[in-house]
């Protein structure tokens, strides 16, 4: 179980931590992740600057990495 990373923007905590397209995120902060919604819910429970452990499955195997969270970018609705 987990979610496949479909994109990683440059200059983000994910890219700095080495998360790549195709990796599978299986847990964040010890909480299992099974949908994009769960990932968002778990991340938003933390504050910018918090460090969370993210477990991923890559082509090289399973690894746990620490990611320092940043503020989420503001997104505007498309008209």
Structure in words:
The protein is α+β, with helices and mostly antiparallel strands and 79 residues long. It is built from two helices and five strands, in the order βαββαββ. The protein has helices at residues 13-17, 36-44; strands spanning 3-4, 24-28, 31-32, 51-58, 61-68. Strands 1, 2, 3, 4 and 5 form a five-stranded antiparallel beta sheet that branches. The N and C termini lie far apart (35 Å). The model has no long low-confidence stretch (mean pLDDT 89).
Blueprint (SSEs and pairs):
Elements: E1 3-4, H1 13-17, E2 24-28, E3 31-32, H2 36-44, E4 51-58, E5 61-68
Antiparallel strand pairs: 1-2, 2-3, 2-4, 4-5
Terminal CA distance: 35 Å
What's the mean pLDDT score? 89
Query: How much helix, percentage-wise, in residues?
Result: 10-25%
Enumerate the spans where pLDDT stays under 50 for 5 or more consecutive residues: none
Say how many strands there are: 5
**What is the multimeric organization of the chains shown?**
single chain
The largest β sheet comes out as:
5 strands, antiparallel
**Rg to the nearest angstrom?**
12 Å
Look at the helices and sheets and give the structural class: alpha+beta
The number of helical segments is 2
């Amino acid at each position: 179980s987990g979610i496949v990373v479909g994109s990683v923007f440059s200059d983000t905590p994910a890219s700095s931590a080495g998360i790549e397209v195709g990796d599978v995120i299986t847990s964040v902060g010890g909480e299992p992740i099974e949908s994009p919604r769960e990932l968002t819910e778990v991340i938003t429970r933390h504050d910018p600057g918090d460090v969370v452990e993210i477990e991923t499955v890559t082509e090289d195997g399973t690894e746990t990495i620490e990611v320092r969270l940043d503020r989420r970018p503001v997104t505007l609705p498309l008209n």
